[in-house]
Structures are given as structure tokens and as C-alpha cells.
Amino acid sequence: MDKYYVTTAIDYVNALPHIGHAYEKIAADILARYYRLQGRDVFFLTGVDEHGSKVEKAARLAGMQPQQYCDLMSEKFQQAWAKLDLSYNYFIRTTDERHVTVVQKLFRQLKDNGDIYKGSYSGIYCEGCEDYLRERDLDADGNCPSHKQKPRQFTEENYFFCLSKYKDKLRQWLSSGDCVVQPESRRREVLKQLDDAELSDFSVSRSRSSLTWGIPVPDEPEQIIYVWIDALANYLTGVGYLTDPDCLSRYWPADLHLIGKDITKFHAIYWPAILMSAGLPLPKRIFGHGFITVEGQKISKTIGNVVDPICLVETYGADAVRFFLFSATPFDQDGDFSKQDFINKVNAELANNLGNLLNRTLTLVERYCGGKVPARAPENNLREASNEVSVVVDKHIESLEFAKAIEAIFALVDETNKYLNDEKPWALFKDNKTVEGETVLLTALEILRRVSLCLYPFTPQLASEIWYQLGYHTKIETLAHGDDFMWELIPAGQLIRNKGPIFKRIDSSCVD
RNA sequence: CGCGGGGUGGAGCAGUCCGGUAGCUCGUUGGGCUCAUAACCCAAAGGUCGACAGUUCAAAUCUGUCCCCCGCAACCA
Question: Taking a C-beta distance cutoff of 8 angstroms, is the pair A230, A266 a contact?
Fold first, then answer.
């Protein structure tokens, strides 16, 4: 069976999840659900990054021990993801014991391979930020821009990864046209960064004096493994590297690393180099998606426009949030979340177009066909149109153009609403043209069946509800027969269940 | 000359690579229908496609110059 291993970035737990975090996880979930429905053997990994000085600092501010704080935050993330109906197979935490083992063994492996060497790292550290800065971050006076104080210069012994050794191989890989890094503009950017002299061997550990909350270098507790190896290795831990060889060989390499555009460099340069050194196959695809702004502004705690996904879901439902985020925004570019647009879009598409189509169709079936799916052949033109939609959706999902996939689905919904208006089945039945009327209704039902399948990855609850009202006793997510079920027909004689609106319109006056 | 994204009817966007009647959604106005969730369908109004210049029979689309907005430093995917 064709496997599909998709990962997301793991989020720092120094703050609560916001809509930007959710965006990427939902994208991964859409893919996971879509390919499961296609019958593929899917593994969807997400999780949190719990190490680092920022987390330690956040814990201290909260008056907790780091581990205690991480347990709490990790729980919060999982709660949020549950609310959003994320169907991940494993939630990784970098404090997991087995991850600690993986990171240490990986470190040792790279070192044994001669790719990690001891060097001296010099940097600058701002006491106010409690963080490392870069020279170019400083203001004109050489001060930290936030704290207006001179940062502390320091030099310490620590370990470096020999990136320079892999630059040629990386260049080759990135140029191989194997659609490795996407979007294309990001691939070119990364290729350019490879030629940058500033991109040299990078530090992979810190001394305990500057970083305590992390995984120690094996046999050298005074050195703590720095973020790159620790965080990136989660993709290996998640599928059982060193602990479950069967799982590893089943899923590795990843088919897709889904990441924010800001960390493309680490995934497209550092990570493959580490894998090369470890002698592991490289990921097939890395996609750096755009960010979500809120009401036209960057998500920022200072501005105070952080949107809490849990709150959003509790108010509007997971489907509405999932749907809006991916219908309104091209995935490779930045998109905006505006409450007014959100309500407009969701009401128009989910309630008015789709919900009402289902509702009017089922009411007609109840009234004129005794609530049973008529035994007729569907009309060919619309049936072909819906065949086409499946193909188009497949293509767009493959290229991660979610908005285009949704657009194609709703074009079919619109067409079907128009079809009912034109064919007027209620009039056909009144004129005793029963065969014609039944054909029209069967066609609409059949399209609704396909729409619910196509929509399932995006709006699982809504799709399941349509599936249920169409009279199925099976659960939509248990279907996994590859393509064939897509081309079947809704069974004649099946009793439909008209349970009223599947999506209640949001009252736009309740915008705060 | 630091890098990148963007400026298209009231709002949000597509189209720009591979020049050829400017398209979609929402909103507005008028009409239709009554199966349906004040829904659905039809029609109309509304744009010198940031500015200027150039290439061309023809430019939103190619070339050049310029203007404006937003990221790239911090909390932050």
C-alpha cells in the first residue's frame, strides 16, 4: 500500500497556541484525511518543541519547573488540536524519553562520522532579552534594540556541525528538480543562501552555563544539544527511529515536511545535511507555507490580535474555521483572517450554498419519493462534471492549492443549485412526470454524495453529517477503498434522513 | 542601490510565467421562483488593472524608471 508520511513543525511551548499554529496543523490534517480516504497508509506527525531557554524562561515566569510547565502547555496544545479535529497519529514532545535517546544517538552518530567537531563559539547575549542576539540585530550604538543596553560578548567551547562538507551535495539535491523544496521561489532562495559565505558550519551545542533546559551531549553533561538537532530529529523519533525499525522503514523518508516559510532554511539545508551525515534518505518534499495575518496585521502579542483557536472553535465550530482558513487563502502566500470575511464566506458557502442544497434536495425526496433514493440513472452532464471535480480536487491537493480545490467543489454545488432551479423537480412531480423528477433528484443526491467525500478532508464533521443525512449507516472516515467508491452511486432505495440545517448561519451582528 | 511580498470595480481576491474582448466571491439595485436555511436562480450598475515612459498591430500581462503599503529586529508559525 502506498504510504504517506506528513509532518508539521513542532511549536515552542512558551506561549499558547494561536491561529497561526493551527493553520499549518489543519493543512497537514487535510492531507492526512484526504490520503487516508484514498486508501493510503498515512502517518501524520505533529507535536511540540519543549526545550530551549525561551521555554525555561516562560516556565520561570509562570512560577513552575520547566517540565511541569511543558506538561501543562503540551496538554493545552493537544486540547486545541482536538477541538480542531486534527487526526494526527502521534503527538511528539521533545522531552519524550525516546526522543532524548534518539537525539543523543544521532549526535553521537554524526560525531563518530567526523561531522561534529569542537570549536569555539562567540556570540553576544542580552541580559534583558535573556537570549542570544546577532551583530546585525543591534542598533547603531551597538545596543540591544529592545533593552537599549550593551549585550555581553562571550566565547565558549562547543560543538559544530560540518555543513561545509555537504554544500555541494545539497546544491545538487536542491537543483535536482525533484520538487524538493516548495514553493519554487523558496527553493531558489535557499539555493542562493547556500552560496552565502555567512552560511558556514553551525553550532550544535551550548555550554550548560548558557543553556540548561535541553538534552545533554552524550557523556558530556556540561554541553547541551542546541535546537537544530534536537528539534529536527523529531521527524525521526515520530516514526520509530531506533525504537521501531518496522515503523521507520514503513514511513521514512517523509513525503512532506510542512513548515512555515521562516524556517525553510533549517529544513532545506541543515536537516538534509544532518540526514546525509547519518546516512538516511532525504525527505521527498518540503513546503514552506505563508503566514496568517489577523485583520490585516501580523499576529503579535504587542498588538494584541492573537486569535485563540479554541475560543474560535467554541464559538463557530471547527469546520467553519478549517474551511475559512483554506478557502480564502493561497497556501504558499500570506493570508488574512478577518472576522467579517470569515462570517461572510462561511455563511455564503457552507450555509447558503451547500447546506441549503442538501436541505432542499432532501425535502423534495421526502415529499415526492417517500424519503427513499430513487432508482434512476443520474443525468450524465452533471455526473461528468462531478467526475471532473474529483480529478481537479486531487490535482490541487497534491500541489497544496487548497483554495483551488475548495473552489472547484463549490462551483459544482452552485451548478447543482442552478440545476434544481432550471429543472424544477417540484413542478415535474406535480405534472406527473415522475421519471423526470426522480432523475433530477437522484442526480442531486449523487452529487451531494461526491461533494461530501471531496469536502471531508476540509470539513470532516460537516461532510459526515451530509453522509449521514444521505442515509448511510457507514462512517465516511471508514471508507478507504482508493478511487472506486468515488465512482459508485448512492444506493437506490436508501432511506434519507432529513435532519434540518447542517450548518447554522452565523449571525454577523455578533461580531465583537 | 540590502532581501522579499504586494498595489486590479465599495470590500476581499484570481488573471501576470506562455501578451489578444478584465474574471470570481461578498456587497448594492431590479427581476424570477416557491422545493429550501430572509434561501436559491437571472439580470444590471460599478474598474483609465499604483504612476510615467518604452517594445508591439495589440500590455493588467513584456522592458525601464518612479511612487505607495507590508514583512525581513523584538513577543511571533
Answer: no
